């Protein structure tokens, strides 16, 4: 497959004004009749070239009612070419599809007895021949015909305009979407579902019918999703002035899905994982993900659907912006500071790792082979950080003006990231010329901050740099906001004078960085004051500084900025680890003292205390080492956990016991307490009496958060009845797929030394399936992406396991298989033996016959 380049973008040769589709659905096959009205846009030659996939059969084709002679067109595996067409015409094409055997889960497929579609990015071409590109917007009318008893629910985009019975036990429904849309937003669902129905009245008084369709047994797990949808609708009106535009909003949950959810116009299709939640089956984190993803898809209605992308290089235009919007939504619904910590953690775990390896690419890539490989943490999460930096630079009010301008200018059009930045510039008057480098340069910038203080003047010298990434050896300096603050010697916020180049915004000062070196001076800084850097994680960078352990411990105790306070704790702990990994124990035990203090803090939000007590993950620590030593990190981290636990045992047990009371509730205070309680239990679990506490919580738990927390600790342990309890959990929950996913994951995340063997056995388990993406991710991704020590176990068994899984999954589902490849490309900082083993695993995959283009593209890049 050939590379496609952003610089080669050309407008389409034909526009489509309207398309009318008729789906006749049967388990033996589906017949699709597409009648498309084309209008010529540019006269290059007379031919019409339409995208089409290799899995459908062309049954008939007419132009303006005249059947085409076989010599008048050519069909290949990827296109239909009609050699000569008039400037305007109606093309009628009938295709035959095989949804039951579609395990790729794109186009039209069958999942748990129901039909559904997935068209982003290029799935529509597997349904009919069409200009399957986001800049061709058309009005859709869709008729669905299916057996009434098996498929009572027939849905598509827009509003239902007709329905009725047909002969042979069939029925039909006709849907019309008044808003022109690209083909990637088309959707159809036919099946047997239960429906949770509700409504929402918009700010302008419009009544919107809301429906969430789930499997009949799951109806009792859909109320949180519905409440989240209503909160999303209200929030978008209040914060962005954006109202819903159709009379009906449908969500359908399916269990076989390549990603989290899909924002099809008026008919979102969701992975069950992001719809179904009840206290018995879902953890607090699951509830929060449901709310976030429901919000994300809803917010796409404006940022993605009404204003869409000109081409797929602009993917971050809708994804980065919509992630930013869903992050803001969650921040407003729950705790802004905790949400920021979660987002920073994810960014560092997924995006920083991506940016430092062979798969690094800009937020707006310049070329791709397989677009599905570009639904990445860089496009989504770094894209959201880029939007957030504009928000920080101009402030919330001006950002809102920029959004209004962007939507007002581009509603109903397919546009570019450049159009967004121009709207922001026009609204704010800021010059974002240099800022645009965030879209075109890959890699994580590195800031080195040196602080010196003399006679009340603090001088900040900030050097920025960015390492080369594939194809980009030299980087220009970025324009970014750096928020900093000051604390006096008692820990109170102060605002010393800043000369030119800085601006105080309440308790934080906004510094704008543009040059490779910037120097700022704060005047009249009192004796003993401490600077707090990188507040709110104001730019997606790595930052080093010359603050002492004592200053970090002080920030960890007093900083009013949650991110900076947490980061101080993380850095203090990291320093202790890294000196221990290198064989030099820290003499003054600054982190241990700070831990002792934080554990006994009963004033601060318990959820935040939990964050302060959570040590940096093995992956975080690995990112800080020149040569990655997964076993060494694991050992030292476990040793420190044990030391902290034993030193604080009585207090840990006392505070745990106090928190382990009260009835279950999902309110924020209860969630916060559970979070702290379960962190404390993790420390207690490594004490001699730990088994009793863990087992008691596991058996007594009345909710999945507490049960899973205990189960994870059981799995890590070598407690006597470990296997028995793990088996018992399976027996109890075997019929709930989402809970069994968790059962696979906890085992994949085990800290035990026999994890690889366990994971190899789990692939043989009757409940494991290579066809179900959730199940594959729950075992294979959890193991290879999150369990650093087990994945890198000496001998290379972890790498060989992952390679085998990639090949097996690829045979059914290339998109899901390709998402597993990245860990095999992270060999650069490993020792020579591990490096070779990883590269051999990549070669082994590449030598397999019939490997997909999706997997090949990533393996080739990873091996370079
Ligand atoms: N816009 C969607 C991205 C997507 C997708 C979703 C489901 C299956 C396959 C997919 N390919 C791309 C999801 C989102 O970002 O909201
Ligand atoms: Zn999205």
From TrEMBL:
Which reactions are catalysed by this chain?
Release of an N-terminal amino acid, Xaa-|-Yaa- from a peptide, amide or arylamide. Xaa is preferably Ala, but may be most amino acids including Pro (slow action). When a terminal hydrophobic residue is followed by a prolyl residue, the two may be released as an intact Xaa-Pro dipeptide
Gene3D superfamilies hit by this protein: 2.60.40.1840, 3.30.2010.30, Neutral Protease Domain 2 (1.10.390.10), Peptidase M1, alanyl aminopeptidase, C-terminal domain (1.25.50.10), tricorn interacting facor f3 domain (2.60.40.1730)
Q: Which residues form the Peptidase M1 alanyl aminopeptidase C-terminal domain?
A: 549-863
Q: Which PANTHER family match?
A: PUROMYCIN-SENSITIVE AMINOPEPTIDASE (PTHR46322)
Cofactor(s), by name: Zn(2+)
What's one Pfam family here? DUF3458_C
Does the keyword Zinc belong to this entry? yes
- Which organism is the protein's source? Kordiimonas pumila
Q: Iron as a keyword?
A: no
Could you list this entry's UniProt keywords, alphabetically sorted: Aminopeptidase, Hydrolase, Metal-binding, Metalloprotease, Protease, Zinc
Organism lineage reads as: Bacteria, Pseudomonadati, Pseudomonadota, Alphaproteobacteria, Kordiimonadales
Q: Which GO terms describe its molecular function?
A: alanyl aminopeptidase activity
What is this enzyme's EC? Answer: 3.4.11.2
Top-level taxonomic group: Bacteria
Q: Which NCBIfam families match?
A: pepN_proteo (TIGR02414)
Its gene is: pepN
TM ranges: none
Ranges where the Aminopeptidase N-like N-terminal domain occurs: 94-185
* Occurrences of domain Peptidase M1 membrane alanine aminopeptidase (ranges): 224-435
Q: Which residues are in coiled coils?
A: none
Family listed: Belongs to the peptidase M1 family.
Q: Which residues form the Peptidase M1 alanyl aminopeptidase Ig-like fold domain?
A: 443-545
This protein is called Aminopeptidase N
């Amino acid at each position: 497959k050939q590379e496609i380049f952003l610089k080669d973008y050309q407008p389409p040769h034909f526009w489509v004004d309207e398309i009318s589709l008729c789906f006749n659905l049967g388990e033996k096959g589906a017949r699709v009749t597409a009648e498309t009205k084309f209008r010529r846009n540019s006269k290059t030659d007379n031919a019409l070239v339409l995208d089409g996939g290799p899995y459908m059969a062309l049954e008939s084709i007419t132009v303006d009612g005249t059947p085409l002679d076989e010599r008048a067109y050519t069909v290949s595996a990827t296109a239909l070419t009609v050699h000569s067409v008039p400037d305007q015409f109606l093309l009628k094409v009938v295709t035959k599809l095989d949804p039951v055997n579609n395990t790729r889960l794109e186009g039209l497929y069958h999942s748990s007895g129901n039909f559904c579609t997935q068209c982003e990015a290029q799935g529509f071409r597997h349904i009919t021949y069409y200009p399957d590109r986001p800049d061709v917007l058309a009005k859709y009318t869709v008729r669905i015909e299916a057996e009434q008893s098996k498929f009572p629910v027939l849905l598509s985009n827009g509003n239902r305009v007709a329905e009725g019975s047909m002969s042979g036990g069939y029925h039909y429904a006709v849907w019309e979407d008044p808003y022109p849309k690209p083909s990637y937003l088309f959707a159809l669902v036919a099946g047997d579902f239960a429906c949770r129905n509700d409504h929402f009245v918009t700010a302008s008084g419009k009544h919107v019918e809301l429906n969430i369709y789930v499997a009949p047994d799951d109806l009792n797990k859909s109320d949180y999703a519905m409440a989240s949808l209503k909160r999303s609708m209200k929030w978008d009106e209040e914060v962005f002035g954006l109202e819903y535009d159709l009379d009906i909003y449908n969500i359908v949950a399916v269990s076989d899905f390549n990603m989290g959810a899909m924002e099809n116009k008026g008919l979102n299709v969701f992975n069950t994982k992001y719809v179904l939640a009840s206290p018995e089956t879902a953890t607090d984190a699951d509830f929060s993900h449901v709310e976030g993803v429901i919000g994300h898809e809803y917010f796409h209605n404006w940022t993605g659907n009404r204003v869409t992308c000109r081409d797929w290089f602009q993917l971050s235009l809708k994804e980065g912006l919509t992630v930013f919007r869903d992050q803001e939504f969650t921040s407003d619904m729950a705790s802004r500071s905790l949400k920021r910590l979660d987002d920073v953690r994810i960014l560092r775990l997924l995006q920083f790792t991506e940016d430092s390896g062979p798969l690094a690419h800009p937020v707006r890539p310049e070329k791709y082979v397989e677009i599905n490989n570009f639904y990445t943490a860089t496009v989504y999460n770094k894209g959201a950080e880029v939007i957030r930096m504009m928000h920080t630079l101009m402030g919330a009010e001006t950002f809102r003006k920029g959004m209004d301008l962007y939507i007002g200018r581009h509603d109903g059009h397919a546009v570019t990231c450049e159009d967004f930045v121009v709207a922001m510039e026009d609204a704010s008057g800021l010059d974002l010329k240099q800022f645009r480098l965030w879209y075109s340069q890959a890699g994580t910038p590195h800031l080195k901050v040196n602080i010196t203080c003399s006679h009340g003047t603090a001088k900040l010298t900030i050097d920025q740099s960015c390492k080369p990434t594939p194809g980009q050896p030299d980087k220009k300096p970025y324009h970014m906001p750096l928020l900093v603050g000051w604390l006096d010697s008692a820990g109170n916020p102060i605002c010393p004078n800043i000369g030119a180049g800085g601006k105080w915004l309440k308790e934080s000062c906004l510094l704008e960085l543009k040059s490779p070196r910037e120097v700022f001076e704060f005047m009249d800084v009192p004796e003993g004051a401490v600077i707090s850097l990188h507040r709110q994680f104001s730019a997606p960078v790595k930052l080093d500084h010359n603050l002492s352990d004592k200053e970090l411990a002080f920030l960890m105790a007093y900083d009013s900025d949650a991110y900076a306070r947490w980061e101080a704790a993380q850095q203090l702990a990291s320093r202790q680890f890294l000196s221990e990994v290198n064989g030099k124990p820290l003499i003054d035990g600054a982190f241990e003292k700070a831990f002792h203090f934080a554990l006994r803090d009963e004033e601060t939000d318990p959820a935040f205390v939990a964050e302060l007590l959570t040590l940096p993950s093995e992956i975080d620590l690995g990112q800080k080492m020149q040569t990655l030593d997964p076993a060494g990190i694991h050992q030292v981290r476990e040793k420190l956990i044990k030391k902290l636990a034993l030193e604080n045992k009585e207090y840990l047990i006392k505070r745990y016991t106090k928190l382990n009371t009260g009835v279950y509730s999902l309110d924020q205070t209860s969630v916060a307490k559970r979070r702290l309680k379960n962190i404390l239990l993790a420390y207690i679990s490594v004490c001699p009496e730990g088994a009793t506490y863990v087992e008691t919580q596991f058996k007594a738990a009345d909710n999945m958060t507490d049960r899973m927390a205990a189960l994870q600790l059981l799995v890590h342990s070598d407690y006597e009845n470990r296997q028995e309890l793990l088996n018992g959990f399976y027996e109890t929950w075997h019929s709930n797929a989402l809970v069994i996913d968790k059962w696979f994951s906890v085992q994949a995340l085990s800290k035990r030394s026999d994890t690889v063997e366990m994971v190899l056995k789990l692939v043989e388990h009757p409940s494991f399936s290579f066809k179900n993406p959730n199940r594959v991710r729950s075992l294979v991704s959890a193991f290879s992406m999150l369990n650093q020590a087990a994945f890198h176990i000496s001998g290379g068994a972890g790498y060989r396991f992952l390679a085998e899984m990639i090949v097996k999954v690829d045979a059914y589902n290339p998109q899901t298989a390709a998402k597993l490849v990245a860990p095999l490309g992270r060999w650069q900082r490993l020792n020579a033996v591990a490096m070779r083993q990883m590269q051999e695993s990549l070669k082994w995959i590449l030598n397999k016959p019939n490997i997909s283009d999706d997997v090949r593209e990533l393996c080739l890049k990873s091996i370079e």
